[in-house]
Amino acid sequence: MKLQSDLINNDVPATNQIADSDCVKFDVRADADIKILFLGNSITRHGVKPDIGWHGDYGMAASCAQNDYVHRLIGMLERDGKKPSYCVCNMSEWESSWNDGQLFDLKYRAARDFEADVVIVRLGENAGLLNRAAEFMPHYEKLIDYFAARARMVVITDLFWEYESFDAAVRALAEQRGYAFAQLHDLGNLDEMKAVGKFEHAGVAAHPGDKGMNEIAERIYKAIKAAK
User: Taking Cα atoms as reference points, which of 47, 75, 77 lies closest to residue 59?
Assistant: First the structure.
């Protein structure tokens, strides 16, 4: 088992992943029949950061936007005949600070006002959880309560890089509240699921590559289907 202390291999900073003015991004279609909100960190979307060798504006470290887990999942739903509009919100600043007041910031309000039908929460790696997972959970629950007040489905995941106490707490929360749950914690233990050898920066390379991103999407997709 890997502990949160092992996440030093992911030294991508939790701050300034996305400009405040751009932390919420929409892809809206006029004929949409479902609205999906993604709440995440760099695995969900990270802006261009040349000093660490990252030049994308999508989920780190996919080879292109269409190969990150957000776009892979949207494609899976579209193949089912769904017509999704979606919103992607980088919550890394809140994630690392635990500052619940930030949830009400103007920069996040558009994500809440999107009034998504499905809210997918895929974060926690930047929360500094070592021996503090129980302390973090009330903040995590407030995040869900704020953004998913009108949602008909909430999907939560454990961590890409395994940390047993948080992973177990998130699974328990899903059971208590009736949320859909996707287990991911085994993926970060496998180099084949990461972008090893594709980036010089070790932190970037520790993120999910295309295979890992697709597996994340597959597991969230299965959780959605099972919850219907």
Answer: 47
